[in-house]
Amino acid sequence: MTVKDNRLRRQNGIFLGVCGGLAAWTGINVFWFRLLFGILLLPGGASALPYFILWLVMPKK
Prior knowledge:
Blueprint: H1 18-26, H2 30-41, H3 48-57
Helix pairs in contact: 1-2
């Protein structure tokens, strides 16, 4: 048996890999994270700051 690694990992990325890392961690398709960040980015860039903070704190695989 292996223990699941609960750390977020930047992978499957188009831009910095944040959505891919969140998708791998939660088991949700990466499309939904990309859609969410894209929608939140439109009205004044509301998701830009959280996106870059996640990029800084997520370990690289």
